[in-house]
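Lecture 7 notes. Example A: sequence first, then its C-alpha coordinates.
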Amino acid sequence: MNTITSPADYPDPKAPASETARQPAKYAFALILAGCAGMYLILHLGLTWLYGKVDETWARISVTVLMLIVAVICQRWLFKVRTGKAIRMLGYGSVHLRALLVAAIISAVMLIFFPIFTVVTGAPVSLINDWLWLLLGIVVVQGFAEETLFRGFVFGGLRKLGFSFRRAGFVSMAIFAVVHLVLFTQLSFIVGVLGTLLAVVIAFPMAYLFERSSNTIWAPVLLHATTSVIRLVDIPEDSYMIAVSVWFGIQLTAPFLVYLFLGSLLKASDE
Protein backbone atom coordinates (compact mmCIF):
# COMPACT_ATOMS: atom_id res chain seq x y z
CA MET A 1 0.00 0.00 0.00
CA ASN A 2 1.51 3.29 -1.11
CA THR A 3 1.95 6.12 1.36
CA ILE A 4 2.46 9.85 0.94
CA THR A 5 6.00 10.54 2.02
CA SER A 6 7.16 13.41 -0.18
CA PRO A 7 5.85 16.36 -2.18
CA ALA A 8 6.23 14.23 -5.29
CA ASP A 9 3.35 12.07 -4.07
CA TYR A 10 1.00 15.01 -4.59
CA PRO A 11 -0.42 15.42 -8.09
CA ASP A 12 0.72 18.08 -10.50
CA PRO A 13 -2.17 20.58 -10.66
CA LYS A 14 -1.39 21.14 -14.38
CA ALA A 15 -1.63 17.45 -15.17
CA PRO A 16 -4.85 15.88 -16.50
CA ALA A 17 -7.44 15.00 -13.90
CA SER A 18 -6.82 11.65 -12.24
CA GLU A 19 -8.29 9.39 -9.59
CA THR A 20 -6.09 10.96 -6.87
CA ALA A 21 -9.14 12.20 -5.03
CA ARG A 22 -11.83 9.55 -5.08
CA GLN A 23 -14.58 12.07 -4.38
CA PRO A 24 -15.55 14.67 -7.03
CA ALA A 25 -13.32 17.74 -6.57
CA LYS A 26 -16.05 20.19 -5.53
CA TYR A 27 -17.56 17.67 -3.13
CA ALA A 28 -14.17 16.86 -1.65
CA PHE A 29 -13.38 20.55 -1.20
CA ALA A 30 -16.69 21.05 0.60
CA LEU A 31 -15.86 18.13 2.87
CA ILE A 32 -12.50 19.69 3.73
CA LEU A 33 -14.25 22.95 4.63
CA ALA A 34 -16.89 21.20 6.72
CA GLY A 35 -14.36 18.91 8.37
CA CYS A 36 -12.09 21.80 9.28
CA ALA A 37 -14.96 23.81 10.76
CA GLY A 38 -16.24 20.84 12.71
CA MET A 39 -12.86 19.87 14.13
CA TYR A 40 -12.04 23.45 15.08
CA LEU A 41 -15.34 23.70 16.94
CA ILE A 42 -14.65 20.39 18.70
CA LEU A 43 -11.25 21.69 19.75
CA HIS A 44 -12.20 25.12 21.03
CA LEU A 45 -15.74 24.55 22.29
CA GLY A 46 -14.58 21.33 23.93
CA LEU A 47 -11.79 23.15 25.73
CA THR A 48 -14.18 25.90 26.82
CA TRP A 49 -16.59 23.33 28.25
CA LEU A 50 -13.91 21.30 30.05
CA TYR A 51 -11.90 24.18 31.52
CA GLY A 52 -12.85 24.51 35.17
CA LYS A 53 -14.22 20.97 35.25
CA VAL A 54 -10.91 19.11 34.88
CA ASP A 55 -7.23 19.99 34.91
CA GLU A 56 -6.30 22.19 31.93
CA THR A 57 -3.74 19.81 30.46
CA TRP A 58 -6.05 16.81 30.83
CA ALA A 59 -8.75 18.85 29.09
CA ARG A 60 -6.35 19.58 26.23
CA ILE A 61 -5.36 15.93 25.91
CA SER A 62 -8.98 14.71 25.97
CA VAL A 63 -10.25 17.15 23.36
CA THR A 64 -7.24 16.64 21.11
CA VAL A 65 -7.69 12.86 21.14
CA LEU A 66 -11.32 13.33 20.10
CA MET A 67 -10.36 15.77 17.34
CA LEU A 68 -7.66 13.44 16.01
CA ILE A 69 -10.12 10.55 15.85
CA VAL A 70 -12.51 12.74 13.86
CA ALA A 71 -9.64 13.82 11.59
CA VAL A 72 -8.77 10.22 10.76
CA ILE A 73 -12.42 9.39 10.09
CA CYS A 74 -12.75 12.41 7.78
CA GLN A 75 -9.52 11.55 5.97
CA ARG A 76 -10.65 7.98 5.42
CA TRP A 77 -14.02 9.11 4.11
CA LEU A 78 -12.58 11.85 1.92
CA PHE A 79 -9.87 9.81 0.19
CA LYS A 80 -11.24 6.29 0.65
CA VAL A 81 -8.09 4.96 2.31
CA ARG A 82 -7.41 2.66 5.24
CA THR A 83 -6.77 3.95 8.73
CA GLY A 84 -2.98 3.59 8.59
CA LYS A 85 -2.66 5.53 5.37
CA ALA A 86 -5.13 8.16 6.60
CA ILE A 87 -2.92 8.73 9.65
CA ARG A 88 0.18 9.08 7.48
CA MET A 89 -1.63 11.45 5.12
CA LEU A 90 -2.42 13.66 8.11
CA GLY A 91 1.30 14.10 8.68
CA TYR A 92 2.27 11.20 10.93
CA GLY A 93 4.92 9.69 8.68
CA SER A 94 8.60 9.12 9.38
CA VAL A 95 10.42 12.00 11.07
CA HIS A 96 12.31 14.25 8.64
CA LEU A 97 15.46 15.00 10.64
CA ARG A 98 16.65 17.98 8.59
CA ALA A 99 13.29 19.70 8.90
CA LEU A 100 13.23 18.95 12.62
CA LEU A 101 16.68 20.56 12.87
CA VAL A 102 15.38 23.67 11.11
CA ALA A 103 12.46 23.89 13.53
CA ALA A 104 14.84 23.44 16.46
CA ILE A 105 17.15 26.21 15.19
CA ILE A 106 14.28 28.65 14.73
CA SER A 107 12.85 27.70 18.13
CA ALA A 108 16.22 28.33 19.77
CA VAL A 109 16.41 31.76 18.11
CA MET A 110 12.97 32.57 19.52
CA LEU A 111 13.85 31.39 23.03
CA ILE A 112 16.90 33.67 23.14
CA PHE A 113 14.37 36.47 23.63
CA PHE A 114 13.88 35.66 27.31
CA PRO A 115 17.48 36.08 28.56
CA ILE A 116 17.89 39.13 26.31
CA PHE A 117 14.71 40.63 27.76
CA THR A 118 16.03 40.13 31.28
CA VAL A 119 19.37 41.73 30.43
CA VAL A 120 17.81 44.74 28.67
CA THR A 121 14.96 45.46 31.12
CA GLY A 122 16.34 44.00 34.34
CA ALA A 123 13.05 42.16 34.81
CA PRO A 124 13.54 38.63 36.16
CA VAL A 125 11.99 35.90 34.01
CA SER A 126 11.53 32.46 35.53
CA LEU A 127 9.64 29.28 34.74
CA ILE A 128 6.35 28.80 36.57
CA ASN A 129 6.09 25.88 39.00
CA ASP A 130 4.06 23.51 36.80
CA TRP A 131 5.68 24.55 33.51
CA LEU A 132 6.45 21.02 32.33
CA TRP A 133 2.85 19.85 32.72
CA LEU A 134 1.57 22.97 31.03
CA LEU A 135 4.12 22.50 28.23
CA LEU A 136 2.61 19.09 27.54
CA GLY A 137 -0.79 20.72 27.06
CA ILE A 138 0.70 23.32 24.71
CA VAL A 139 2.42 20.66 22.60
CA VAL A 140 -0.80 18.65 22.44
CA VAL A 141 -3.09 21.49 21.29
CA GLN A 142 -0.95 24.16 19.62
CA GLY A 143 1.32 21.44 18.30
CA PHE A 144 -0.45 18.22 17.38
CA ALA A 145 -4.10 19.29 17.23
CA GLU A 146 -3.69 22.51 15.24
CA GLU A 147 -0.94 21.21 12.95
CA THR A 148 -2.92 18.06 12.17
CA LEU A 149 -5.92 20.21 11.33
CA PHE A 150 -4.28 23.11 9.50
CA ARG A 151 -1.33 21.49 7.77
CA GLY A 152 -2.20 17.80 7.61
CA PHE A 153 -5.94 17.91 6.92
CA VAL A 154 -6.56 21.26 5.22
CA PHE A 155 -3.33 22.16 3.37
CA GLY A 156 -2.35 18.53 2.76
CA GLY A 157 -5.88 17.72 1.64
CA LEU A 158 -5.92 20.59 -0.85
CA ARG A 159 -2.57 19.47 -2.26
CA LYS A 160 -3.93 15.95 -2.57
CA LEU A 161 -6.86 17.32 -4.56
CA GLY A 162 -4.39 18.79 -7.07
CA PHE A 163 -4.07 22.37 -5.82
CA SER A 164 -0.71 24.03 -6.52
CA PHE A 165 1.37 24.95 -3.49
CA ARG A 166 0.52 28.64 -3.83
CA ARG A 167 -3.18 28.06 -4.40
CA ALA A 168 -3.41 25.60 -1.52
CA GLY A 169 -1.55 28.10 0.65
CA PHE A 170 -3.89 30.99 -0.12
CA VAL A 171 -7.07 28.91 0.13
CA SER A 172 -5.99 27.35 3.43
CA MET A 173 -5.04 30.82 4.69
CA ALA A 174 -8.59 32.01 4.00
CA ILE A 175 -10.02 28.93 5.70
CA PHE A 176 -7.87 29.54 8.78
CA ALA A 177 -9.12 33.13 8.97
CA VAL A 178 -12.76 32.03 8.81
CA VAL A 179 -12.55 29.24 11.38
CA HIS A 180 -10.68 31.51 13.77
CA LEU A 181 -13.79 33.72 13.94
CA VAL A 182 -14.96 31.39 16.72
CA LEU A 183 -12.29 33.02 18.90
CA PHE A 184 -14.38 36.20 18.95
CA THR A 185 -17.16 34.32 20.76
CA GLN A 186 -14.82 33.09 23.50
CA LEU A 187 -12.14 35.74 23.93
CA SER A 188 -11.78 39.51 23.87
CA PHE A 189 -11.86 41.25 20.49
CA ILE A 190 -8.16 42.11 20.50
CA VAL A 191 -7.16 38.51 21.41
CA GLY A 192 -9.39 37.20 18.63
CA VAL A 193 -7.83 39.59 16.12
CA LEU A 194 -4.28 38.71 17.16
CA GLY A 195 -4.98 34.96 17.10
CA THR A 196 -6.50 35.19 13.63
CA LEU A 197 -3.67 37.38 12.37
CA LEU A 198 -1.05 34.96 13.63
CA ALA A 199 -2.72 31.93 12.00
CA VAL A 200 -2.98 33.74 8.65
CA VAL A 201 0.48 35.32 8.57
CA ILE A 202 2.44 32.16 9.34
CA ALA A 203 0.39 29.95 7.00
CA PHE A 204 2.94 29.93 4.17
CA PRO A 205 6.16 29.35 6.15
CA MET A 206 4.47 26.57 8.10
CA ALA A 207 3.17 25.06 4.85
CA TYR A 208 6.72 25.05 3.48
CA LEU A 209 8.00 23.41 6.65
CA PHE A 210 5.27 20.77 6.35
CA GLU A 211 5.75 19.99 2.68
CA ARG A 212 9.55 20.12 2.68
CA SER A 213 9.57 17.68 5.62
CA SER A 214 7.97 14.98 3.47
CA ASN A 215 4.47 16.12 4.40
CA THR A 216 4.87 15.36 8.10
CA ILE A 217 3.88 17.53 11.04
CA TRP A 218 6.76 16.81 13.44
CA ALA A 219 8.78 19.93 12.58
CA PRO A 220 5.70 22.21 12.43
CA VAL A 221 4.57 20.84 15.81
CA LEU A 222 7.87 21.85 17.40
CA LEU A 223 7.85 25.34 15.91
CA HIS A 224 4.16 25.98 16.56
CA ALA A 225 4.45 24.86 20.18
CA THR A 226 7.43 27.15 20.69
CA THR A 227 5.32 30.16 19.72
CA SER A 228 3.25 29.62 22.88
CA VAL A 229 5.99 29.12 25.47
CA ILE A 230 5.53 32.59 26.92
CA ARG A 231 2.75 30.97 28.95
CA LEU A 232 5.40 28.97 30.79
CA VAL A 233 7.26 31.91 32.29
CA ASP A 234 6.61 34.29 35.15
CA ILE A 235 7.23 37.94 34.22
CA PRO A 236 6.79 40.90 36.61
CA GLU A 237 3.50 42.69 36.07
CA ASP A 238 5.09 46.03 35.20
CA SER A 239 7.07 44.38 32.37
CA TYR A 240 4.47 41.86 31.23
CA MET A 241 2.78 43.87 28.45
CA ILE A 242 6.12 44.85 26.95
CA ALA A 243 7.25 41.23 26.94
CA VAL A 244 3.99 40.00 25.42
CA SER A 245 4.06 42.67 22.70
CA VAL A 246 7.61 41.86 21.70
CA TRP A 247 6.89 38.14 21.82
CA PHE A 248 3.91 38.58 19.49
CA GLY A 249 6.20 40.28 17.00
CA ILE A 250 8.57 37.30 17.29
CA GLN A 251 5.65 34.91 16.74
CA LEU A 252 4.76 36.73 13.53
CA THR A 253 8.28 36.97 12.12
CA ALA A 254 10.38 34.03 13.33
CA PRO A 255 8.56 31.37 11.25
CA PHE A 256 9.70 33.21 8.12
CA LEU A 257 13.24 32.07 8.93
CA VAL A 258 12.08 28.85 7.26
CA TYR A 259 12.75 30.56 3.91
CA LEU A 260 16.46 30.75 4.74
CA PHE A 261 16.65 26.95 4.63
CA LEU A 262 14.63 26.21 1.48
CA GLY A 263 17.77 25.80 -0.61
CA SER A 264 19.65 23.71 1.92
CA LEU A 265 18.16 21.70 4.78
CA LEU A 266 14.66 22.09 3.34
CA LYS A 267 15.63 21.62 -0.29
CA ALA A 268 12.84 20.09 -2.38
CA SER A 269 13.40 16.44 -3.20
CA ASP A 270 13.23 17.08 -6.96
CA GLU A 271 15.81 19.88 -6.95
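Example B, a different protein, same format:
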Amino acid sequence: MPRKKTPNTDKPTRLQKFLSDAGVASRRHAETLIRAGRVLVNERVVESIPSFVDPASDKVVVDGRRVRVQRHDYFIVHKPKGFICTNRDPAGRPRAVDLLPPLEARLVPVGRLDVDSCGLLMMTNDGELAQKLTHPRFGISKVYRVEVKGLVPRDLPARAEKGVYLSDGKARASGVRIVHAARDRSVLNITLDEGRNRQIRRMLARLGHPVKALKRVQIGPLSLRGLPVGAARRLTRNELESLRQAVEAGGSRPRTRPARWGHDARPKRKTTARPAITHTSKRSARPATTARKRASPRGRGRA
Protein backbone atom coordinates (compact mmCIF):
# COMPACT_ATOMS: atom_id res chain seq x y z
CA MET A 1 0.00 0.00 0.00
CA PRO A 2 1.16 3.60 -0.51
CA ARG A 3 2.22 5.00 2.78
CA LYS A 4 1.43 8.24 4.49
CA LYS A 5 4.40 10.50 5.02
CA THR A 6 5.72 10.43 8.55
CA PRO A 7 7.87 13.07 10.23
CA ASN A 8 10.49 10.47 11.18
CA THR A 9 11.72 9.93 7.61
CA ASP A 10 12.11 11.95 4.43
CA LYS A 11 12.47 8.93 2.09
CA PRO A 12 8.85 8.70 0.90
CA THR A 13 7.93 11.02 -1.94
CA ARG A 14 4.56 12.09 -3.27
CA LEU A 15 3.19 9.62 -5.77
CA GLN A 16 2.38 12.27 -8.40
CA LYS A 17 5.91 13.66 -8.10
CA PHE A 18 7.36 10.18 -8.51
CA LEU A 19 5.28 9.65 -11.67
CA SER A 20 6.32 13.04 -13.03
CA ASP A 21 10.01 12.42 -12.35
CA ALA A 22 9.70 9.02 -14.04
CA GLY A 23 8.35 10.68 -17.19
CA VAL A 24 4.87 9.17 -17.00
CA ALA A 25 2.95 12.45 -16.93
CA SER A 26 2.90 15.92 -15.46
CA ARG A 27 1.98 16.15 -11.78
CA ARG A 28 -1.50 17.42 -12.64
CA HIS A 29 -2.14 14.64 -15.13
CA ALA A 30 -0.68 12.11 -12.67
CA GLU A 31 -3.37 13.10 -10.18
CA THR A 32 -5.98 12.37 -12.87
CA LEU A 33 -4.47 8.91 -13.41
CA ILE A 34 -4.53 8.23 -9.66
CA ARG A 35 -8.15 9.31 -9.24
CA ALA A 36 -9.12 7.13 -12.21
CA GLY A 37 -7.74 4.05 -10.44
CA ARG A 38 -5.04 3.44 -13.04
CA VAL A 39 -2.13 3.50 -10.57
CA LEU A 40 -1.16 0.52 -8.40
CA VAL A 41 1.40 0.50 -5.62
CA ASN A 42 2.53 -2.92 -4.41
CA GLU A 43 -0.33 -4.51 -6.39
CA ARG A 44 -3.03 -2.38 -4.74
CA VAL A 45 -5.01 0.42 -6.36
CA VAL A 46 -4.29 3.84 -4.88
CA GLU A 47 -7.54 5.30 -3.58
CA SER A 48 -6.52 8.61 -2.00
CA ILE A 49 -4.40 11.71 -2.55
CA PRO A 50 -1.91 12.58 -1.20
CA SER A 51 -0.15 9.22 -1.15
CA PHE A 52 3.54 8.55 -0.76
CA VAL A 53 5.90 5.86 -2.05
CA ASP A 54 9.46 4.81 -1.40
CA PRO A 55 11.14 4.73 -4.83
CA ALA A 56 13.75 2.28 -3.57
CA SER A 57 11.35 -0.42 -2.38
CA ASP A 58 7.77 0.19 -3.61
CA LYS A 59 6.51 -1.28 -6.88
CA VAL A 60 4.50 1.27 -8.92
CA VAL A 61 2.44 0.21 -11.95
CA VAL A 62 0.48 2.47 -14.34
CA ASP A 63 -1.86 0.89 -16.88
CA GLY A 64 -0.14 -2.45 -16.40
CA ARG A 65 3.41 -1.15 -16.93
CA ARG A 66 6.08 -0.97 -14.21
CA VAL A 67 7.32 2.56 -13.54
CA ARG A 68 10.99 3.01 -12.68
CA VAL A 69 12.91 6.11 -11.68
CA GLN A 70 14.84 7.62 -14.57
CA ARG A 71 18.15 9.38 -14.24
CA HIS A 72 17.98 13.16 -14.35
CA ASP A 73 18.83 14.87 -17.61
CA TYR A 74 19.47 18.58 -18.29
CA PHE A 75 19.30 20.43 -21.62
CA ILE A 76 19.33 24.02 -22.80
CA VAL A 77 17.44 24.98 -25.96
CA HIS A 78 17.52 28.06 -28.16
CA LYS A 79 13.76 28.38 -28.68
CA PRO A 80 12.73 30.09 -31.91
CA LYS A 81 9.73 32.39 -32.12
CA GLY A 82 6.53 30.50 -32.90
CA PHE A 83 7.36 27.44 -30.77
CA ILE A 84 5.29 26.66 -27.66
CA CYS A 85 6.62 25.39 -24.34
CA THR A 86 3.81 22.96 -23.50
CA ASN A 87 4.47 19.28 -24.19
CA ARG A 88 0.87 18.64 -25.27
CA ASP A 89 -0.86 20.75 -27.89
CA PRO A 90 -4.08 19.58 -29.58
CA ALA A 91 -3.56 22.25 -32.27
CA GLY A 92 -0.35 20.56 -33.41
CA ARG A 93 1.84 23.66 -33.21
CA PRO A 94 5.65 23.24 -33.13
CA ARG A 95 6.91 22.50 -29.60
CA ALA A 96 10.19 23.29 -27.88
CA VAL A 97 10.44 19.66 -26.77
CA ASP A 98 10.60 18.65 -30.46
CA LEU A 99 14.00 20.37 -30.66
CA LEU A 100 15.52 17.80 -28.26
CA PRO A 101 17.20 14.63 -29.52
CA PRO A 102 15.33 11.32 -28.96
CA LEU A 103 15.31 10.62 -25.20
CA GLU A 104 13.81 7.99 -22.92
CA ALA A 105 13.14 10.56 -20.20
CA ARG A 106 10.30 13.07 -20.38
CA LEU A 107 11.76 16.57 -20.05
CA VAL A 108 9.73 19.69 -19.26
CA PRO A 109 10.59 23.40 -19.60
CA VAL A 110 11.87 25.33 -16.59
CA GLY A 111 10.21 28.74 -16.79
CA ARG A 112 8.29 29.15 -20.00
CA LEU A 113 8.60 31.60 -22.87
CA ASP A 114 5.44 32.63 -24.68
CA VAL A 115 4.95 31.74 -28.33
CA ASP A 116 6.01 35.23 -29.49
CA SER A 117 9.29 35.17 -27.52
CA CYS A 118 12.56 33.38 -28.23
CA GLY A 119 15.81 32.58 -26.50
CA LEU A 120 17.23 30.43 -23.73
CA LEU A 121 15.05 27.64 -22.35
CA MET A 122 16.17 24.98 -19.89
CA MET A 123 14.52 21.56 -19.94
CA THR A 124 14.89 18.78 -17.37
CA ASN A 125 13.13 15.96 -15.53
CA ASP A 126 14.65 17.06 -12.21
CA GLY A 127 11.49 18.43 -10.61
CA GLU A 128 13.17 19.60 -7.41
CA LEU A 129 15.78 21.70 -9.21
CA ALA A 130 13.16 23.06 -11.63
CA GLN A 131 10.98 24.22 -8.72
CA LYS A 132 13.91 26.02 -7.09
CA LEU A 133 14.95 27.72 -10.33
CA THR A 134 11.48 29.24 -10.78
CA HIS A 135 10.67 30.09 -7.13
CA PRO A 136 11.28 33.79 -6.27
CA ARG A 137 12.80 32.84 -2.92
CA PHE A 138 15.95 31.49 -4.60
CA GLY A 139 16.43 34.66 -6.66
CA ILE A 140 17.78 33.04 -9.85
CA SER A 141 18.11 35.95 -12.28
CA LYS A 142 16.88 35.81 -15.86
CA VAL A 143 18.22 38.35 -18.37
CA TYR A 144 16.19 39.46 -21.40
CA ARG A 145 17.01 41.52 -24.48
CA VAL A 146 13.88 43.54 -25.25
CA GLU A 147 13.00 45.76 -28.21
CA VAL A 148 10.20 48.26 -27.60
CA LYS A 149 8.35 50.86 -29.62
CA GLY A 150 9.40 54.49 -29.42
CA LEU A 151 12.09 56.45 -27.65
CA VAL A 152 12.24 55.43 -23.99
CA PRO A 153 12.81 58.22 -21.44
CA ARG A 154 15.88 58.23 -19.24
CA ASP A 155 13.82 57.55 -16.12
CA LEU A 156 12.23 54.35 -17.48
CA PRO A 157 14.83 52.04 -15.84
CA ALA A 158 14.19 53.63 -12.44
CA ARG A 159 10.41 53.38 -12.88
CA ALA A 160 10.60 49.70 -13.89
CA GLU A 161 12.89 48.91 -10.96
CA LYS A 162 10.62 50.76 -8.56
CA GLY A 163 7.68 48.65 -9.67
CA VAL A 164 4.49 48.71 -11.70
CA TYR A 165 1.05 47.71 -10.46
CA LEU A 166 -0.45 44.89 -12.52
CA SER A 167 -3.66 42.92 -12.09
CA ASP A 168 -1.88 40.27 -10.00
CA GLY A 169 0.15 42.65 -7.84
CA LYS A 170 3.18 44.88 -7.96
CA ALA A 171 5.85 43.69 -10.39
CA ARG A 172 9.36 45.06 -10.60
CA ALA A 173 12.57 44.44 -12.50
CA SER A 174 15.77 43.94 -10.54
CA GLY A 175 17.80 45.68 -13.23
CA VAL A 176 17.15 47.68 -16.43
CA ARG A 177 19.72 49.14 -18.81
CA ILE A 178 19.10 51.15 -21.98
CA VAL A 179 21.24 49.65 -24.76
CA HIS A 180 19.90 51.74 -27.63
CA ALA A 181 17.38 54.56 -27.84
CA ALA A 182 15.95 56.06 -31.04
CA ARG A 183 12.75 57.75 -32.10
CA ASP A 184 11.15 54.63 -33.61
CA ARG A 185 12.61 51.87 -31.39
CA SER A 186 14.65 51.27 -28.26
CA VAL A 187 16.52 48.23 -26.91
CA LEU A 188 16.70 47.32 -23.22
CA ASN A 189 18.46 44.73 -21.11
CA ILE A 190 16.06 43.66 -18.33
CA THR A 191 16.86 41.38 -15.40
CA LEU A 192 14.13 39.63 -13.40
CA ASP A 193 14.41 37.75 -10.13
CA GLU A 194 10.74 36.75 -10.27
CA GLY A 195 8.72 35.26 -13.06
CA ARG A 196 5.07 36.00 -13.84
CA ASN A 197 3.04 35.35 -16.93
CA ARG A 198 4.17 37.80 -19.66
CA GLN A 199 5.58 40.07 -16.94
CA ILE A 200 7.93 42.14 -19.09
CA ARG A 201 5.34 42.67 -21.80
CA ARG A 202 2.72 43.81 -19.30
CA MET A 203 5.11 46.08 -17.39
CA LEU A 204 6.38 47.88 -20.47
CA ALA A 205 2.88 48.22 -21.91
CA ARG A 206 1.86 49.86 -18.63
CA LEU A 207 4.82 52.22 -18.95
CA GLY A 208 3.76 53.19 -22.47
CA HIS A 209 6.28 51.22 -24.53
CA PRO A 210 4.83 47.97 -25.98
CA VAL A 211 7.27 45.15 -26.68
CA LYS A 212 8.17 44.45 -30.31
CA ALA A 213 10.59 41.54 -29.66
CA LEU A 214 11.74 39.67 -26.55
CA LYS A 215 14.66 37.27 -26.19
CA ARG A 216 15.93 35.57 -23.02
CA VAL A 217 19.72 35.41 -23.08
CA GLN A 218 20.63 34.14 -19.61
CA ILE A 219 19.30 32.02 -16.70
CA GLY A 220 21.54 32.33 -13.65
CA PRO A 221 25.00 31.21 -14.81
CA LEU A 222 23.64 29.65 -18.04
CA SER A 223 24.13 31.66 -21.21
CA LEU A 224 22.76 31.46 -24.74
CA ARG A 225 26.18 32.25 -26.18
CA GLY A 226 27.30 29.87 -28.95
CA LEU A 227 23.95 28.05 -29.26
CA PRO A 228 22.29 28.54 -32.68
CA VAL A 229 18.57 29.16 -33.06
CA GLY A 230 16.66 25.87 -32.85
CA ALA A 231 19.61 23.96 -31.38
CA ALA A 232 19.78 22.04 -28.09
CA ARG A 233 22.58 20.55 -26.01
CA ARG A 234 23.16 18.91 -22.64
CA LEU A 235 24.52 20.95 -19.77
CA THR A 236 28.15 20.37 -18.99
CA ARG A 237 29.18 19.17 -15.54
CA ASN A 238 30.59 22.60 -14.69
CA GLU A 239 27.38 24.35 -15.81
CA LEU A 240 25.22 22.04 -13.69
CA GLU A 241 27.46 22.54 -10.66
CA SER A 242 27.37 26.33 -11.09
CA LEU A 243 23.59 26.20 -11.35
CA ARG A 244 23.27 24.19 -8.13
CA GLN A 245 25.63 26.55 -6.32
CA ALA A 246 23.49 29.52 -7.41
CA VAL A 247 20.37 27.77 -6.08
CA GLU A 248 22.05 27.01 -2.74
CA ALA A 249 23.22 30.62 -2.41
CA GLY A 250 19.72 31.88 -3.14
CA GLY A 251 18.11 29.47 -0.70
CA SER A 252 20.29 30.75 2.15
CA ARG A 253 18.88 34.29 1.81
CA PRO A 254 16.24 35.45 4.32
CA ARG A 255 12.68 35.07 3.09
CA THR A 256 10.76 38.16 2.04
CA ARG A 257 7.05 38.17 1.32
CA PRO A 258 6.40 39.26 -2.27
CA ALA A 259 4.39 42.46 -2.61
CA ARG A 260 0.87 41.62 -3.68
CA TRP A 261 -2.12 43.75 -4.43
CA GLY A 262 -4.25 43.98 -1.34
CA HIS A 263 -1.31 43.80 1.09
CA ASP A 264 1.72 46.05 1.33
CA ALA A 265 1.64 46.66 -2.43
CA ARG A 266 -1.54 48.70 -2.36
CA PRO A 267 -0.89 52.47 -2.53
CA LYS A 268 -1.81 54.16 0.72
CA ARG A 269 -4.18 57.09 0.75
CA LYS A 270 -3.14 60.31 2.36
CA THR A 271 -5.16 61.04 5.44
CA THR A 272 -5.37 64.18 7.53
CA ALA A 273 -5.75 64.04 11.26
CA ARG A 274 -9.15 65.11 12.51
CA PRO A 275 -9.46 67.29 15.56
CA ALA A 276 -10.44 65.47 18.70
CA ILE A 277 -14.12 65.72 19.64
CA THR A 278 -14.93 66.44 23.28
CA HIS A 279 -18.44 65.83 24.57
CA THR A 280 -19.83 68.60 26.76
CA SER A 281 -23.25 69.33 28.19
CA LYS A 282 -25.43 71.28 25.78
CA ARG A 283 -26.69 73.49 28.62
CA SER A 284 -23.22 74.38 29.88
CA ALA A 285 -21.75 74.84 26.37
CA ARG A 286 -24.52 77.24 25.23
CA PRO A 287 -23.82 80.94 25.91
CA ALA A 288 -26.27 82.63 28.27
CA THR A 289 -27.21 85.29 25.72
CA THR A 290 -28.11 82.68 23.16
CA ALA A 291 -30.16 80.77 25.71
CA ARG A 292 -32.15 83.93 26.55
CA LYS A 293 -32.76 84.71 22.88
CA ARG A 294 -34.11 81.20 22.29
CA ALA A 295 -36.41 81.27 25.39
CA SER A 296 -40.11 80.90 24.63
CA PRO A 297 -42.06 84.23 24.75
CA ARG A 298 -44.78 82.54 26.70
CA GLY A 299 -42.43 81.87 29.58
CA ARG A 300 -41.57 85.52 30.20
CA GLY A 301 -43.01 87.22 33.35
CA ARG A 302 -44.28 84.06 34.95
CA ALA A 303 -43.57 83.33 38.58
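Note on Example B: The radius of gyration is 31 Å. Confidence is low (pLDDT under 50) at residues 3-9, 256-268, 289-303.
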